[in-house]
Amino acid sequence: MTQRRIPYIILAPGLILLILFLVLPLISAIYPTFFDGGFTLANYTSFFLDDYNFGIFWRTIKISLIATLICVVLGVPTAFYISKSPKKWRGLLMSITLFPLLTNSVVRSFAWITILGQDGIVNNALKSMGLISKPLTLLYTEFAIVIGSVYLFLPLMVITLVGILENIDSEIMEAAETLGANRLVAFMKVILPLSVPGIIVGSILVFTGSLTAYTTPQLLGGNRNIMLATFLYQNATALGNWQGASVIALIMIAATLIVMKLFNWVAGRMDKRGEASA
Amino acid sequence: MRKNVGLKVFTGLVFAFLLVPLLIIIVTSFGTNSTIQFPIKGFTLDWYGKVFSNEAFMDSFFLSLKVAFIATLLALIIGVPAAYSLARHKVFGRNWIKSFFLSPTIVPGLVVGYAMYQFIVIKFQFPIIQGLLLGHFLICLPYVIRVVGSTIEQLDFSIEEVSWTLGCTKLQTFIKVVLPNITSGIFASFMLAFINSFNNIPVSQFLSGPGVTMLPTSLMNYIEYNYDPSVSALSVVLMLGTIVLMFIIEKTLGLASIS
């Protein structure tokens, strides 16, 4: 009898800490947003009916979507190249990919401030070439957040894809070419479909990462291009609107879960053998 | 295989995109001008001196190290036995419990920090530093459960049975047989959890106060009001730290084990 209780005693400390310091805090923050006298969804409907709030929500979705697409387009060929290179090169290329990922995200966003700023590298280069007389506004734009997010999450996409592509038999590609497909067609018709599970997992990571990112929009977006995370922070601190911050918190959690379910569902439909739910 | 020039050039450009911004930071850290310039006009190491004599940076650096270390240790103490139990014991709702242990990765970091701040710092009046430690414990735990869990699953169960047959108790077996065989997994999860806690910003964003500011947060605050090469210099120091850690991981486990 006591033997059977042992696993639960071992698991208990972790479970208790998670309940006390993650679940209860979340419930205590979010529960009041549904009650104003009685049960109500008014906080959420009014959030989405408000043009300003909805604009921030929509900007967050849009930027995350664009960043994810760019990461797929840049990531798949790069990962394919890495997975097919000789072993000693592969290790080096993987370390180069891993390095930015393990470097602080403030550092990585800051790099783009020096590149895109008013007095930044791009503007100075264009000025010295005589192409522009006044500096272009590149920093503190949605464009800057997109670049920053791609820069932040591309390594994650590449590493996820390399793991999948390494397991694809290289003879498949040769077979396709022997049967008359040129390289591009063989890539599109053979490699791309086989890498769908990797693309899905990578896209979930990039999309949810950009959706909830705080550092990049804070540093590269400025005050006019607020995203959900920066809006939450602003509500809780500058505006002192805890209710509003909690509403945004739940929207962020819900959006993350919906995106994960949606992408996995798409993967399940695309992969006829139904193996992509990983 | 024929050489595919197009793919090679494309990959080269992607790698340039990944590395050039970081190289630019390295170059700007040596500039003599009081604001960041590229290309630089003169060469100086003064900005590195400024970083190491900046008390706010140094205090937050040591705080970040301390918090990341304690949080990772706590996650290992609680996570390793839990991962073992989930892999080996018959537990009711095993998959559900495992997902629950991994759930801190699904909740956005800023939301974790916000909810904890409101609940334990405001409502229950915990000191901020304790909230910070617990928040970072939540960041670390999923890495331990995932990495150590998969190491244990790959470990041959029969060596434990042999140990029991030879008279060791279950606890003795865990300490003398299981732990020595999963040290690589423990080390890998320690590294991953430590790096991610050290680099994390969203969780710490709400959980900071006077004297309790983590290094990334203090760097971010500094950037909001300053645009001088000491930011580049600190960035270079952090990059060197990353390289040292990557080197240690490569020499002990191989980088493939954490990617």
UniProtKB/TrEMBL annotation, chain A:
Keywords (A to Z) from UniProt: Cell membrane, Membrane, Transmembrane, Transmembrane helix, Transport
Recorded superkingdom: Bacteria
Single GO BP term: transmembrane transport
SUPFAM superfamilies, per database record: MetI-like
PROSITE patterns: ABC_TM1 (PS50928)
Stored Pfam families: BPD_transp_1
Keyword Oxidoreductase among record annotations: no
Keyword Transmembrane helix included in the entry's annotation: yes
Membrane-topology descriptor: Multi-pass membrane protein
Transmembrane segments: 7-31, 56-80, 92-117, 137-165, 186-207, 242-263
GO cellular component: plasma membrane
Cellular localisation: Cell membrane
Residue ranges of domain ABC transmembrane type-1 in the record: 57-263
InterPro entries per the UniProt record, alphabetical: MetI-like, MetI-like_sf
Family: Belongs to the binding-protein-dependent transport system permease family. CysTW subfamily.
Protein name in UniProt: ABC transporter permease
Native source species: Neobacillus rhizophilus
Automatic annotation (TrEMBL), chain B:
Segments forming domain ABC transmembrane type-1: 61-249
Topology of this chain in the membrane: Multi-pass membrane protein
Record InterPro entries: MetI-like, MetI-like_sf
CDD domains: TM_PBP2
SUPFAM superfamilies: MetI-like
Parts of the chain that traverse the membrane: 12-31, 67-87, 99-120, 126-145, 178-198, 230-249
Main localization (coarse): membrane
Annotated compartments: Cell inner membrane; Cell membrane
Keywords of the record: Cell inner membrane, Cell membrane, Membrane, Transmembrane, Transmembrane helix, Transport
GO biological process: transmembrane transport
One cellular component term from this protein's GO annotations in UniProt: plasma membrane
Keyword Flavoprotein set for record: no
Family: Belongs to the binding-protein-dependent transport system permease family.
Name of protein: ABC transporter permease
Provenance organism: Neobacillus rhizophilus
